[in-house]
């Protein structure tokens, strides 16, 4: 499951360019936020693309995506970066670069859409939605017995703990989790059908 950790560090960007690019972009934005000297000020977060409902109502829909790359404290930045490094490469390999990029942006946006739909107040930032989307994909792999059962149970426990810790935004994160689960189901089934068709073509050649 963590075979990418054996890849030499200098080769990682070439093998997993999407994960590398996301890590680089959010690192640059985090450093820029710190450089303002007001990294704890929600008003500055908004200036850097954070989600806030009244800005969405003014037509700034891009905040659904931009806030995914903005992290406003060290713990959030380190946790999400580590999680993406640990669990993102497998999905980039499985889905391909283009579809993994869409998956990450879509599930990240789902949580922000959830903040709006469920009227969850506050200024929100971070890739929490994308992380829950990735967890949803892995939960589907676990239910299909496509990953190690012990790893799957560990991920399930991680989901439950995080939902409890983030109970105030639970509905928004569940939206991303469910979205990641069903996208995983669709992608895996498409790959299965494609593989079966290729096998049939090989038999007739």
Can you tell me about this structure?
There is one protein chain. The protein is mainly α and 205 residues long. It is 72% helix and 0% strand. It is built from 10 helices and no strands. It has helices at 12-15, 17-35, 42-47, 53-57, 63-66, 74-95, 97-117, 128-143, 149-165, 170-203. The longest helix has 34 residues, at 170-203. It is globular. It starts with 11 loop residues before the first helix and ends with a helix. The model has no long low-confidence stretch (mean pLDDT 91).
Radius of gyration: 18 Å
Question: What letter string, H or E per element, gives the SSE order?
Answer: HHHHHHHHHH
Give the strand tally. 0
Distance between the termini: 35 Å
Topology (elements, then pairings):
Elements: H1 12-15, H2 17-35, H3 42-47, H4 53-57, H5 63-66, H6 74-95, H7 97-117, H8 128-143, H9 149-165, H10 170-203
Write a compact overview of the structure shown.
With 205 residues, this protein is an all-alpha fold.
Descriptors:
205 residues, mainly alpha, 72% helix
